[in-house]
Fold:
Amino acid sequence: MSKREFRLENEYAYNRSGPKRWILSHTFRYPWLPVLVTVAAVVNNFAHSYIQVFIGRAFDIITSASWETHALLMTALGAFGAAATQGLIGLVRNYANEFIAQRIERDARDELYGSLLGKSQTFHGKQRIGDIMARATNDVRMLNIMFSPGVMLVVDGIMGIIAPIVLIGFLNVQLLLVPGLFLIAFVITVWDYARQLNPVSEALREQFGVMNSGLAEAVSGIEVVKGSAQEWQEIDNFVRDAASYRNFFVKQGLIQARYLPMLMFALFRAAGFFHALWLWRLGVLTLGEVVTFTGLFGVLRFPTFISIFAFNLLQLGIASARRILELVNTETNLDENEAGFSQPMQGRVVFEDVSFSYDGSENGGSSILKNISFTAEPGETVAIVGQTGSGKTTLTRLINRIFDANNGRILIDGVDVRDWSLESLRSQISTIEQDIFLFSRSIAENIAFGNNEANQESIVQAAHEAQAHDFITGFNEGYETEIGERGVMLSGGQRQRLAIARAFLTNPRILILDDSTSAIDSATEDQIQKAMRRISSQRTTFLITHRLSQIRWADRILVLRQGELVDQGKHEELLERSEAYRRIFARYD
Structure:
């Protein structure tokens, strides 16, 4: 079982060893549906082919020396019954196939979304959001289209070949000569068509992801684009990506234009008609049987013609499935450890000779943190100071296992963080960063995020403590105000106060504040600091800040320089003995 930070309960186990097996495992999750589609396709196509048999019989009746109206009427009723059966069973087939298509799209989207939630931050940091969105929307939707109408056309096409061939064999075995040769030619030409189309279909899906990624990045960074007057540059980039996407479409069209099965059908149909007339001339067939054979051979036109679209849809669907599986099957380096240690935290944090680098190496110049050791007791406030790039934020991200240390151990309450249940670990740690992420939901929902049991009273109380209540009530809809994508309707300071309110409401045992009041004015910050000091005595707090007023009241200060812990202690102690701290303090001052 692959590592994941999150997995659904009672998750269905799909076969992810390849795109085709994955699609089949999704299909056979509902085994009665593909059976129903297949049976309906068999009945539908035999009914359709039997219409030609009744037409041939009618031709023999009316060309005979003496014929009865009753015989002709019964033949006509037989043709009507076959046509009615075809129509009714066709509805059943279409309904069952559409049901499969919708279920597979839903299940694949759920599976992909759950998989993305289970990936580590390292994984997500390497992905392009636009490409992920293309896979989660367009590629998943392509699975639906692959089944409806793609798979339905393939199944219908196969039965549309088998049914007339079987009836031709019952008519006269000698008539199978030309249809048999046609089938051989059909298989060869379709195989060659699929061989040429497959790489183009995959490239088409890949290029769509590239184009979508560029578009998403340009829109997300529109402020930077406009601020740098780079609109034309972004247009050129998009036009180039779109042109490449168009070129793959043109190449696909050229392959389809050289589709040979229809030519094979025309040639072999003429040969089959000649062969049937030859057998009639020899007295082997009646004229009605020649008409029946010609009609049955004509039935082969639909599966021949429709295969150009059906196989294209199948190729696109398989290409989309492969792209989805690339995300789902990508290994992540963290696991939820569901059976791990789980209990209320006291908040004692110990770093033992911890080193970390993003490339996974335990030593060398690429290390962000090198041999860090310190202890934070429950209820302590630990300030982390150092120049930009010294590893302050990275250190705090090791505590809640956003990343895992490459070397050494991090203990919480004497238990290695790797041995904790990931859900229990993270649910008791809250982080407020400078770059606040808010959801496009109401203010109340954003504050309550992470605490599903929060009521309106507790939400308002948390907002009061974070000095956010006044500006919230200034909106017409108050706490029900929708704040837009990433909180675009709010200022930086307002976003930070909502994040602080969220942290107050979740009541974490370990609180990490990463420059969380940088966009807040001094007067408001003083009020927030009072609330923070009140709650800090009940939890372990890690503080990354440039504000001297916050650094001074920390119980312990860690001084980082180029990833190394060069000193630690209280403010007065460090001022006296640490030159590195004095330089940092002088710069802040």
In short: The mean pLDDT is 79. The first helix runs from residue 19 to 27. The CA atoms of residues 463 and 469 lie 5 Å apart. The chain has 21 helices and ten strands.
